[in-house]
Every structure is written in C-alpha cells, then in structure tokens.
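Appendix B, example 12.
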Amino acid sequence: MVGGGSRSTLWVSLLASLLGRPLRPLPEVDSALGAALWAAASVGLAVEPSAAESAVCQPDPEAQAQLAAAFERYQQAHVALAGFYASLATRA
C-alpha cells in the first residue's frame, strides 16, 4: 500500500479489514511508484519495492463483521430509496 493513506495506521487497518487481506504500507513511497509496482506485478514481474518495509497489517475479524453489516444496511437503504432517487431525477 502506498500514498498518503498508507501513512495512517487507522486507514490501513480499516482497508485491510474491508478487503479481508493483510496489507503492508510502504514508507516514504509515492503513488507513482505504487502504480509502477502494480503494473510490473500485473505482467508477472517479481518486484522488491523496498528494503525498509513496515509491518504487515492483518484484517480484524470483528471489524470485518461490522463492515459487512454496515454494507448490508447500505444495500437495503439503496434499494428502498431507488424510487425516490428516480423521482428526483425526473423533476424539472
């Protein structure tokens, strides 16, 4: 994980739990390098981004359950409000 958000322990922890995957933020790396690393990995190149990597942030199972429940409530609200949103879009 690279970029401004990777400097926030809270954000990295939240994202790891949301994705259900461990994340390793890279210190002092900008987004351009992150994009280059993703591009290299997508074509099968092995990459070694940094010798000074930070600790891996593991997903939190409790946070995962809370995020899943919140997303379920969001989906229910979206379905329930679909007609209302459509009516707003058709008003002149």
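The chain is about 60% helix and 0% strand. The two ends are 45 Å apart (CA to CA).
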